[in-house]
Amino acid sequence: DALAAAAIRLLGDPERRAGLRERGEAHVRRFDWATVGADILAVYETVTDGAASVAADERSGLRARFGLARD
Fold it and tell me: What is the pLDDT of residue 59?
């Protein structure tokens, strides 16, 4: 009953729905592969201590495999 009541309240509150949608979209962007791939590369580069930057590597397909292909 409580879930149904909450759903009915939400259906009647367009501002609340819009706010939840915006927060959801912002939250999901954190998990976009381009963002996650960049974070993973940053970690790898901190542990390689001075090795050549993977993010700057121009080999064909390397950045694309991490979801970081340049346009």
Answer: 63
